[in-house]
Design brief:
The chain is an alpha/beta fold and about 200 residues long. It has six helices and seven strands.
């Protein structure tokens, strides 16, 4: 299963028990749910990725979780894509986004990293921003000001590395279902259709 028709779908997060169920790891969580729903087990390791191969709605798919830390996500994604012969147009990255309200997702193609270190690492490693992102809203702490520095502030780090409460996790299970549907829409109908449906 190699070639231009295959998609690489990678969810971003930090490895280790310490970071489980934190806001910054919603990408990992989304990949876990995608794998479970489509019976794609992430049982293999290569290039610092946990990954599995299978099909989502008859589309050949590689699901991956880069197991280096967030700000070094790029090289594992690049190496896995190169190994399977997958171009950037068939790479989809799932990640958290503080600029999107909790409960919402947005689909984006191309564009900058918006201060997200994982996305910045992927852009640097691929040498292009021509890939699809599914951005999962985690909102911002009320004390944040709207400045570019907030992504690197101590308060921002505490917030994104904070764990979800049990009630929040119940809410996010619904969001992960929306993410799963959005991924299926991208693969079956294209990014424009997905953006029209989920970015409203």
């Amino acid at each position: 299963m190699t070639g231009s028709g295959i998609w690489l779908i990678a969810g971003l997060g930090n490895p280790g028990r310490k970071y489980q169920q934190t806001r910054h790891n919603v990408g990992f969580m989304a990949i876990d749910r995608l794998g479970a729903h489509h019976d794609i087990g992430l049982k293999r390791t290569m290039f610092k990725n946990r990954y599995g191969r299978g099909f989502i709605n008859n589309v050949g798919t590689v699901l991956a979780q880069p197991m280096d830390f967030m700000n070094r996500s790029g090289p594992p994604v690049y190496q896995l894509a190169r190994y399977f012969g997958i171009g950037s147009a068939h790479i989809l990255i799932i990640h958290d986004d503080m600029d999107i309200d909790i409960g919402r997702i947005k689909i984006k193609v191309k564009g900058g990293h918006g201060g997200h270190k994982g996305v910045r690492s992927i852009i640097d490693a691929l040498g292009t921003n021509d890939f699809t992102r599914v951005r999962i809203g985690i909102g911002r702490p009320e004390a944040f000001t709207e400045t570019p520095e907030t992504h690197d502030s101590p308060d921002a780090a505490d917030y994104v590395l904070g764990k979800f409460s049990k009630r929040e996790m119940q809410h996010y299970e619904e969001i992960f279902e929306t993410v799963r549907e959005a991924v299926s829409t991208v693969l079956e109908k294209g990014q424009a259709a997905a953006m029209n449906r989920y970015n409203g």
